[in-house]
Each structure stands twice: as structure tokens, then as C-alpha cells.
Amino acid sequence: MRIMGLDYGSKTMGVAVSDSLLLTAQGVEIIHRKQENKLRQTLARIEQLTKTYGIERIVLGFPKHLNNTIGERAVKSTELSELLRRRTGCEVILWDERLTSVEANRALTEAGVRREQRGKYVDMLAAVLILQNYLDYLNGSGGE
User: Fold this and answer.
1) Phi, psi of 5 (to 5 degrees)
2) How would you classify residue 122: left for phi > 0, otherwise alpha for psi between -120 and 50, otherwise beta?
3) Could you tell me which of 62, 136, 129 has the C-alpha nearest to residue 97?
4) Under CATH, which number does the domain 2-140 receive?
5) Nearest in space to 125 (alpha carbons), one of 11, 2, 16
6) Band of the pLDDT at 132, cuts 50, 70, 90?
7) CB 51 within 8 A of CB 4
8) What sign for the dihedral angle of Cα 85, 63, 110, 122?
9) Is the dihedral of CA 120, 60, 33, 84 positive or negative?
10) Domains of the chain: which residue ranges?
11) Exposed, middle or buried by CB within 10 Å (0-12, 13-18, 19+), for 64?
């Protein structure tokens, strides 16, 4: 079994997948959309990736506010989770993603990636961080 991690942004979707041992997360790609609400091609690409990698579960970043309340982005993530379940047949886990984009930007800055180039990688790295946090949780709690 492998797990996919997704960072859902307004015009991009960062994608990461786990190894088969569920120990590490690797970035796969960033899916671009021209408009926020146009998800048909994005869902088709995710479906294709789930088949390619043998994905059985998807971990979707859930952007809660720092005070633990739920805003518009979290509502959109909840709606997307249902679309993903129907389209892929995979279980979808909503996972707290607070500060993952900040952490991704910090990691890219520390790695010496120039500001102009960071946008190309930040969503995929955020997806890696979301998935890795989930994998660490699974491994720390003795599995599922």
C-alpha cells in the first residue's frame, strides 16, 4: 500500500507519495489550474496518479486557522475530499496542515533556493511535509 499527500492551493495542487513501507514521503509534481473552481483535469490527474502508484489512501491538507477554527479554505478542502473519494475510490484523510507552507518556504530558503524559484517547489514540498507528518503519526502510534 502507498499513501498520497496533497497540498490544495487556489491554483495549484502539490502531490507527494509514500514509499511502500510507509516511512518516507517524496514529492511527485505540482498540478496547475487556470481557475480555482476548475477541478475536472486536476481530479483526472490525481486519479491517474493513484493508479500509477497503487495509492489506497489520500491525505489532504486541512488548513485550519491558528486558533483551531475552520475557514473558507478548509470548507473547500472538505468538499474536495468528497470529490476525491468518489473519483478515486480511496479513503481520504483530512490532515491539519497549519504552517506547512511556512515550513516549506523556510526549508527552501535555507537550501539557498532563490525567491523567484521557490514558488515552483513550495506546494510540492508542502505536500511532502503533510504526508510525512501523517506517516510519522502512523509509525509513532504503532500503525493504523
Assistant:
1) -110, 140
2) alpha
3) 62
4) 3.30.420.140
5) 16
6) very high
7) no
8) positive
9) positive
10) 2-140
11) middle
pLDDT tens digits for range 26-59: 999 999 998 877 899 999 999 999 999 999 999 9
Residue with cell 472538505: 78
pTM of the model: 0.86
Q: Are 43 and 84 in contact (CB under 8 A)?
A: yes
Q: Please, are residues 15 and 29 in contact by the beta-carbon 8 Å criterion? A: yes
Report the C-alpha dihedral over residues 92, 97, 101, 102, rounded to 10 degrees. Answer: -170
| 3: DSSP letter | E
Report d(CA 30, CA 27) in Å as an integer. Answer: 9
Per-residue confidence (pLDDT) for residue 143, from 0 to 100: 46
Q: What count of other Cβ atoms lies within 10 Å of the Cβ of residue 110?
A: 8
Block residue for cell numbers 481557475: 35
* pLDDT confidence band for 21 (50 / 70 / 90): very high
CA 121: distance to chain centroid? 13
